[in-house]
Amino acid sequence: MAIETTPLLEHQTDGGEEQKRESFVKEFRDESKKLWKIAGPTIFSAICQYSLGAVTLAFSGYVGELELAAFSVENSVIAGFSYGVMLGMGSALETLCGQAFGAGQIRMLGVYMQRSWVILLTTACLLVPIYVWAAPILEFLGETTEISNAAGKFALWMLPQPFALAMIFPVRKFLQAQRKVMVIALVAAVVLVLHVIFSWLLILKLQWGLVGAAITLNTSFWLLVIGQLLYIFMTKSDGAWSGFSWLAFADLFGFVKLSIASAVMLCLEFWYLMLLVVITGRLSNPLIAVDAISICMAIQGWDAMIALGFNAAISVRVSNELGAGNAKAARFAVLVVSITSIVIGVICFAVVLVTREYFPHIFTSSEAVAEETTKLALLLAVSVLLNSLQPVLSGVAIGAGWQSIVAYINVACYYIVGLPAGILLGFTFKFGVQGIWSGMIGGICLQTIILISITSITNWKREVDQAESRVKRWGGSAGED
After folding, report:
1. Is 239 left (phi over 0), alpha (psi -120 to 50) or beta?
2. Domain that holds residue 135
3. Are residues 196 and 138 in the same domain?
């Protein structure tokens, strides 16, 4: 009996393992479809929106080295500061809209969006002095007088930008929470085509230089706002938009608190990279160094849009599943998106290394700048690989509402470890921009390891209870009236 039973038991065991593998593959495939349904159009629209600045950067590079440096510094430091604040403040909406949608509180999405508008437009007003006094701020941070003055003039022309961002981010989060990402992608594609045409016309053909760049950029940002708002107002977004409401001004303190936590979390990441450009401006021959690092940042920015797409997708998936009470589904979504992002990161790593002799010439006609950019390709490739996973884990944090915890982690990893290490390597040990960037990479690497650890030990059932409490506390019951 024993001789006959043992093979049978082994066969049953093998069969059970085979069924588990097949079940895992099926679940992985199903979850991937859900993620890509959100991430695909979001990546496309993010690339289109990011390309507005990258296209302008490319055209500015063909005007002259000073124009390229001025646009790069303003875009990285002044606009980068503003973008980080607005994106961070708007990201609170991902937590609230996603969890409200998962809980079936559809009407509250429109109310949350309006609350976010109130907060972000107020914030935009507070950011105006940074644009007005951009030149002395940049010079104080260590940029040369020549670059600071040129960037300061450009910043004045970009004053409408923070107000456009204050409208764009809440609208985008509102639509993403409902998985209406194709609308965002379509509007972004149309605006990008118009942006390329008018950038060529105003910057090169009419030779308006940075003034033409500012006019084109501002117009494009506001076209994004108008296109998406027209869709929301005309379709009512399946009941999520029911018109303007006084509820938008209710419990603003609680909303501001979560918005600030979100802003700190994401701003610390954006400003960390922004400081790379600022510190580089203190090196010898800063014009070439700033141009080279700016080109690398542009390439990294395009890659970051892929991660940003998954950031939005996993934030929506986690917040929806937590709002619906599905702890197991939320945990599995995190596993699937992490594996997918790492695979894409490896591919992008290889692409950067293979094209390192060619991509600098897209942005500049200067051989000196192109040569310096090529030297940074390996560090760029490593950054691209790390940034394939790190923003995704930040998306998990947003979906679950962990913004405050991640903010503390970012401070420690970026500003206590990464930044001092970069300054030490760049200036004390004379490794220049490569040393500065290496220190920064060290901070990102440490942060990624910590986020992986936190995500791995998370009690998702407890997160479900907290999501239910959050929806009720910030007006969920109002959606039933």
Report:
1. left
2. 35-250
3. yes
